[in-house]
Structure formats: structure tokens, C-alpha cells
Amino acid sequence: MLDVAVIEDPAVAEVSLDPVRARLLAELAEPSSATMLAARIGLPRQKVNYHLRTLEQHGLVELAEERRKGNMTERVMRATAASYVISPTALAAVQPDPGRAPDRLSARWLLAVAARLVRDVGNLLTGAAKADKKVATFALDGEVRFATAADRAAFAEELATAVTTLVAKYHDEAAPGGRAHRVVVAVHPSIPKE
């Protein structure tokens, strides 16, 4: 089971967004049969089987094992990933584009950059999985509490200067065999934890 799977196909995204199927995906972090799932989520086994078949056809669940029970075979299914992310690629015609929202201080531009990040890393993960390789990435995630809006603005200015200096130090346009990497740094208000 993958830790995170990226959904790029619009049909798979549609299937995963059905509330019953999303609940089944969550329940199938641990392998279960339709009978076991039906009891847990309060739906008839036949309806659960219908949704499981649809999820299986779209690669979101897989057969973990088959068990003989009398004259029947019970199929035990599991999710193909612990969690899923829907790539903006699934909505290709309307996916966000940072080029259409050039105001780098706007939340909409930040969201378009984040969508591009999800799309690009999703494509890298998909390609790496096919080639049975890993993707070299690095991320920082933290929180800072500013006393004033002026402090936040000063922090953003210093951060931009530091990152620009670091990029200039290591960027080598003419490096033979070099590989370009995208750098994304974002600052946004934190959402309080419930």
C-alpha cells in the first residue's frame, strides 16, 4: 500500500469523491470484506459490493486475499493507498495557472502555485513508480507567529533575499548533466486546529 497516491484521471477522481466510496476507502486502510464493511457503515452488503467493484475497476482498491466460506469465496479488499490527492491534472481545462494570476502577494496566486506543485510532484511520483525509482525532494513546514503586520512584511523581504541569494549561489545554467529543480516558498496565515 502506498502512503499517498495521486489521482490524475478525471474518472478516477469522480469515483473517489462519492461520499460512500470515500468512506469505504478510509475503512479499507485495513483489509476488509464487503460483509464486514456493510456492518461497519450500515449499508447492505450488495450495495457495498457494487461500490467496491467500482473502486477496484478504477485502481483505488485491490484484492488482499480470498477466503473460502462454505460454498462461497469471500473477497477481502484493501485500499491501494493510505491517502489520496487529486491532482489539478484531473481538471486539466480549468486547472489553476500561476501565469493567469501574476499578483505574487495574492492568495489566489499562492493557490495556483500550490496546485502546480501538486500536479508536478504527482507526475514525478507516477513516473518514478513506473520506473521503480524514488523522487529526490525536500520540504520545510513550520509556523511563525508575527507580532505585527510590519514584522510579517520584513520577514517576507528577508526570506526572499535569503532564498534569492541561495539560488544565485547554486544555480548553474551551463552545468553538464545538471537538472533544474523548482523552489517554492510560501507564507500564509495558519488555520487554527480544532
Keywords:
194 residues; 6 helices; elongated; three-stranded antiparallel sheet; two-stranded parallel ribbon; 5 strands; 2 domains; alpha+beta; single chain; Arc Repressor Mutant, subunit A
Produce a short descriptive summary.
This protein is α+β, with helices and mostly antiparallel strands and 194 residues long. It folds into two domains: 83 residues, Arc Repressor Mutant, subunit A (Orthogonal Bundle); 79 residues, no CATH class.
Query: How many β strands by DSSP?
Result: 5
Instruction: Describe the sheet with the most strands.
Output: 3 strands, antiparallel
Number of domains: 2
User: Under CATH, the topology of the largest domain is which?
Assistant: Arc Repressor Mutant, subunit A
Structural class: alpha+beta
Radius of gyration: 22 Å
Strand content: 15-25%
Note the total helix count. Answer: 6
What would the principal axes of the Cα set say about the shape?
elongated
Characterization of the model:
This protein is an alpha+beta fold. It folds into two domains: 2-84, Arc Repressor Mutant, subunit A (Orthogonal Bundle); 92-170, no CATH class. It is 44% helix and 16% strand. The chain has six helices and five strands; from the N terminus they run E-H-H-E-H-H-E-E-E-H-H. The chain has helices spanning 10-17, 19-27, 34-41, 45-57, 107-131, 149-170, and strands at residues 2-7, 32-33, 61-69, 72-79, 81-86. It has a three-stranded antiparallel β-sheet. Strands 1-5 form a two-stranded parallel ribbon. A hairpin with a 2-residue loop joins strand 3 (61-69) and strand 4. Helix 2 packs across helix 4 and helix 3 (34-41) crosses helix 4. The model has no long low-confidence stretch (mean pLDDT 92).
